[in-house]
Write a structure and sequence with these properties.
By secondary structure, the chain is of the alpha+beta class. It has a domain of 227 residues: MetI-like fold, CATH 1.10.3720. Helices cover 65% and strands 7% of the residues. A four-stranded antiparallel sheet has the order 1-2-3-8. The protein is globular. The protein starts with 20 loop residues before the first helix and ends in a 5-residue tail after the last helix.
């Protein structure tokens, strides 16, 4: 008999049986989804029924109504005649502002303290250790109250304000600083962005040059030079006006310049000082994760300790530092919600005022949750991208 005439062997049909692990896993997943869906449906139905019984309106139509309340700090123009949507936007911008500045300052301070914890100088090492242990073990809310009391109650009035730097005044009204005004401010910011783009391009070229020739490019000098030269040069070529406005004492308060209110300053100080203690430990553990042989090998090449740290140790330590650092950045963003305790108008404070006036509690809570979820996921996505970019590529 020819093998070509032999009919193909059909595999046995798979029967549905409870003894089959694949069948059981599918059934369990269907049951789990059904239970979760049923619980969600019950909660939503019960909530809608209770709201209907109490004649409480639902929906987000209130966002287009007039807010009718003032906000102490407004990064964008706002009046009580504006809508609730505008007021909530102001609160969101206030939250983003304090979170962004806090992340930058906490990273810088935490990195310095983390490196100081590994210093060979006994005094520097002990001072940094005490700083970390003390700041990490005092609740953030208490630190916010402490800094707010220091600024608003223990600082002198405007007439006797401290004058630590030219044009800078510290009083119980906050911190007054000089600011730039005029059409040239846009060109100045454009110059900063241009300098940052040039720094990224130059950094990439410097790494390729070092890999090709082994010569270290003086990147720090060029970074400082680009940041110092590009913004004023672009403003000068634009021909626009730019003026420095210095705060002046008139009557019982300062006029002109930029003011950091006691609420903003206390929140920023508390977030930075509290979180920098955790970041310092992250940096310290990341540096210690690099083998001692790396230090010794770099030192054998004649590199100074600062160059060893910057060129050899920190690039390897970043792969350990970035994941826990992401958690600290998220903590800064989420901990900023404690601003309501000291009166800073963040998104939580403004939505609390909104729901007290409108009664739209569920919608207000949903907007707070959506705002923090969006910001946190954005930070996570960026940090995960950076973590993959610096990760070692296996061959």
């Amino acid at each position: 008999m020819n093998h070509k005439d032999t009919p193909p062997v059909q595999p046995p049909r798979r029967r549905l049986s409870w003894n089959d692990p694949g069948v059981r896993s599918v059934i369990y997943q269907i049951l789990a989804v059904g239970i979760v869906g049923g619980v969600v449906w019950y909660l939503v139905h019960n909530t809608m029924h209770n709201l209907s019984v109490r004649n409480i309106t639902t929906g987000f139509g209130f966002l287009s109504r007039e807010a009718g309340f003032a906000i102490g700090e407004t990064p964008i123009s706002y009046t009580p005649a504006d809508t609730y949507a505008r007021a909530i936007s102001v609160g969101l911008l206030n939250t983003l502002r304090v979170a962004l500045i806090g992340i930058i300052l906490a990273t810088l301070l935490g990195t310095v303290i983390g490196i100081a914890r590994l210093s060979k100088n006994w005094l520097i090492r002990k001072i940094s250790s005490v700083y970390v242990e003390v700041m990490r073990n005092i609740p953030l809310l208490l630190q916010l109250f402490f800094w707010y009391a220091i600024i608003s109650e223990m600082m002198p009035g405007p007439r006797k304000a401290h004058h630590p730097l030219p044009g800078v005044f510290v009083s119980n009204r906050g911190i007054q600083m000089p600011t730039l005004n005029g059409d040239g401010l846009t060109w100045l910011l454009a110059g900063v962005l241009l300098a940052i783009a040039a720094i990224f391009g130059l950094s990439r070229w410097a790494r390729q040059r070092q890999a090709r020739t082994g010569q270290i490019f003086p990147m720090l000098r060029w970074v400082i030079g680009l940041l110092v030269v590009c913004p004023p040069a672009l403003w000068w070529f634009s021909g626009t006006t730019l003026s420095l406005e210095v705060p002046e004492l008139k009557g019982f308060n300062f006029v002109g310049g930029m003011t950091l209110t006691p609420e903003f300053a206390a929140l920023l100080f508390g977030l930075v000082i509290y979180t920098s203690g955790f970041i310092a430990e992250v940096v310290r553990s990341g540096i210690q994760s690099v083998g001692r042989g790396q230090w010794e090998a770099a030192g054998a090449l004649g590199l100074k300790s600062t160059l060893v740290l910057r060129l050899v140790v920190l690039p390897q330590a970043l792969r350990v530092i970035i994941p826990p650092m992401t958690s600290q950045y998220l903590n800064i963003t989420k901990n900023s919600s404690l601003a309501v305790a000291i009166g800073y108008p963040d998104i939580v404070s403004i939505i609390n005022t909104t729901l007290n006036q409108t009664g739209q509690a569920i919608e207000g809570i949903l907007m707070i949750m959506a705002a923090y979820l969006t910001v946190s996921l954005s930070i996570s996505v960026f940090m995960n991208w950076y973590n993959k970019r610096i990760a070692l590529v296996e061959r």
